[in-house]
Structure formats: structure tokens, C-alpha cells
Amino acid sequence: MQPSDPAASAASAGPPGVPAFVQRPPEGAYRRLNPTTKLVIAVVEALTAFVLRGWTGLVIVLALVVVTAAVARIGRAMLPFMLATIPLIASILLVNTFLYPGATDAIVRIGPLTPSWSGLEFATQAALRVVAFALSVAVFGLTTRPDDLVSDLERRGLGRRVGFVISATLRTVPRILQRAGEITEAQRARGMDTEGGIWRRVRGVLPLAGPLIFGALTDVEEQAMALEARAFSAPARRTVLRTFPDSPAQRTLRWALLATLLLVVGLSVSGRLEFLP
Amino acid sequence: MSWLSRQFPTRVIALIPVAIAINIVLGYTVQTVLKLPIYLDSIGTILVGVLAGPIAGAVTGFASNIIWQYAPGIGGGTIGPFAITAAVIGLLAGLWGYLGVYRPRPAAGARLWLAALVGIAIIVLLASRIYGNPAYADPDFFVPWYSTAILIVGIVMSIAVAAAVLLRRDTSGAWVAVAGAVTGIVAALVSAPISAYVFGGVTGGGTDVLVAALRQGGADVFNASLGQGFFSDPIDKTITSFVVFVVLASLSRRVVARFPLGERVVTPEPAAA
Fold this sequence. Notes:
- The complex is a heterodimer.
- Helices cover about 65% and strands about 0% of the residues of chain A.
- Chain A is mainly alpha-helical.
- By secondary structure, chain B is mostly helical.
- Helix content of chain B is about 70%, strand content about 0%.
- Chain B contains twelve helices and no strands.
């Protein structure tokens, strides 16, 4: 279950002998976009799917996500993200269809169970909203390397602290995940029960959490010193090594998208658009 | 701005990514490897809040959920929108840290029993707001065994508090439990609207069974989510608070004291004999 980074592996698949930091420029209309533009697109899509109620927002966002995924040619890589939403969608559909509060328009009556049309409609919308949200984030995540995004945001004035927190977290998670796996196996070898009754599994939390937390916290001290030794808290503004092409058209697109989002949120909150169910 | 950047010295900046990773990895492992019906995904948030203050705690909580949603492979399907809840948890943890809730307070004899009783009394008070309340006994909104379930949760938590206070010989156990329970109730209040309006009340986890039961009992989308939250969150946050308390007590004093709120967490140096 290591988090994979298809964007990174695709980018590093350059000709042999070329160092990893010399990247081929990304291909395709969507991939060539500036990382910040892609971030704005993903955020606006995800929020629109939630804010715009009824079918309109969902259909627009899903169509956009599918088109961008097709343009970026990541249909195959999107499959795991689709599969990951299945348990959630099944749960949403079942609970809401069969147990929608106050529904009277029963589809069919099977013993004590009465699935309702209004429940089914509500469930389908909620499920599609989750899919639209997950996929808009997935399209962004699959086409954009976190490092690229952080460098680009830093060039635009993002504080180095925020940049460090984002990129350091993305590097730390796989490392700690691996460590958690090692600790679980080590404790199993010492007789920790991860399969037994609930009380045995509750007792398994401390032998897992303890070494994990202490191991991680010992690194903090050294990291803080290493950062200080490299003038991390120096007040001067840093220059950036890598820049990403931007264009006036993209800038216009970003502001237009954000303005649309504000408009949609404003209209929804003021009740001029369909808002809460 | 200098006020804001003073909240984030380099040591805290180095701690936050580790805390976020602990949140994500432990939450993921507890929910899928140990298959427990709790979340345990806010240990890092509470740790940062207690050590570095409300702002740093809120940032850690918020960033945890956003990055978890973004990290592929360990599937944060619905975690992103709950970033607001996580931020509130971090804010509260900062408040508890500022008030010195997590500082060990060794005691003996009558004071220990008093602390255990005070802790239990506060939990009973919180539970009785739900247990004796006709709003929750209304069969139109809640399942018949809802009150019984709350009673059992209250008893289990009371026993845990008493055991923590008496076995560790430390009156802080009571305050940590109360802080955890209050955090859990606030978290439930913040989560319920998110869960209800964003996901239709269902989040794909083990807690959905509880939501379904409450709906069967006649609760509407919002009340079913709220009922589930009042059940799961106080337990989860109390356990999390105790984990953080044990971690802080086991860390060396030198490490803890260097964080901004560190001096409110360590025991005062015993006077030289």
C-alpha cells in the first residue's frame, strides 16, 4: 500500500544518463499547465460539487473531470481512485435508499424494508458528489508533482514554512507508513494479536502507537537543528531554482474560476440557487 | 505578522510534518490493520496543540486532513471536508495545553480519590445531559437503546478515568479525561453538519452502522449523524488524549520544555534536597 506517484515516475523516465532533476517538459494541453492553475482548477471543481446542489453542479463537474482526465491521458491511473470510492458509495446508496427519513414514495415493499425514490435520488446525488470530489483531487494529484507545486507557490510568495510543511509531510508519510508496518510485524512476532476479539485489538494500540510516536519525535530535534544550520529562519527572501511557464491566459483563467466559485457560493448561501437538501 | 510567525519557531515547523504523518499513518493503521471502530487520527494534532499552542494545533489538524485526502494509496475518501473538525480539535488542544491540563500532578491518598471523583462527576454530568434528556428518549428520533448505550459509554469512561488517576497516582488523569470528552463533544457538533450535508450522513466507515440504526429509529439525516458523533467522538478523543498524556509523560523533559508551551507541560523541577 505504498502511495505511488505516477507523475514522478513518468517524469523521471527520461533518457538514461540524465540526472533526475533535468525533467522533460510535460506533454499534453492539461499537463503543460502551470501547477498553480491545476490546483485552482481542482479546488474550484471540488468545492463546486459540494456547493451547487441538485444535479447541475454535479453534472458540470463530472463532465469537466472526465474531460481533463481524458486530455491528460490518465484514465487507467484513475481506476484505483474509482475503486477506492466503491465501499463509500455502496454505503451511501444502501443507507439512504432504504432509510431516508420521512420518505413516503416507496419503490417497493420487501418486508420491513421500504426503499424510496426520494432516498434513491438523494443517495445518487451524494454518491456522485463524492466521486466528483475524489476524482477532481485525483486528476490533480496524478498530473502534478508536489515538489513542482510547492516551488511554484513559493515563487508566488508562499512562506517557506508553509512550503516546508507541505513537502516535508509528503516525504514523511511514506517513511512513517513503512515504519508502522515494521512495528506491527515486530509486535506480532512478540505475540500482539491483530485478529482476535475487540479487547485484544484495543490492547494492540499502545504497542503500536508508542514506538511509532517516539521514533518519529526523536527525528524532530535533529531536523530542527539541520534546518537552523541552513538558515531556515533567515528573514531574506529566497530565490527559486526551477520556474514553471505561466501565461496571461492562465492567469485570467485562474481569476475567472475563483470569481465563478465566489459567485456560486454567494448565490447558494443567499438562497438564489438550490443549496442544502 | 510577527505575532503569527512567533507561533511557529523552527522546532515547531519541524514537528508539524511529523505530527501530520503520525495522524495519517496511525489513523490509517488503526482503522484498517487493527480494524477498530475508532479513528485515532488526531494524536499528532493534539500533541502539537498542547506543545505549541492553538494556532499551530489548528494548522496541523487542517493540513492533516487536506494532505490525507491528497495522498494517493491510503485512500482518504471522505476525510478532506472534516479538516474543519480537525482544526477545531487542534484549537481546543492548544487551549488545554495553555491551561496546563497535561502537566503531571503527582498526588497521594485523599487527593487522588477526590480527583477521581471529580473526573467521574464531570463525565456523569455530561452523560446525564443526554441520558436523562427527553429529547434523546423520543422514539421518533432515537433508537430505544440509545440511552442505555450512552450509559454504558459513561460507565466505561468513568472506570477508565478512575483507573488512570489511581494507578498512575496522578490527578492529571481526571483533567485529561475531561478535556478529551469535551473535545469529543465539540468535534461531534462540528462534524455532524459536515457529514450530513456533504456526504448525506454516511462516510463509508464502521460508524455507518450506528447511523443506519439511528435512521431506522426515525432520526433525520442531521440527528442521526449527531447521535453517532456523540457516541464515537468522546470515546475516541478521550483515548487520544490519554495516549498524548502518556507520550508527553514519557518524553524526556529536555525535549518537551523546548517547545513554546513546553513549560506548561513538564513537571516543575523538584527542589534540591
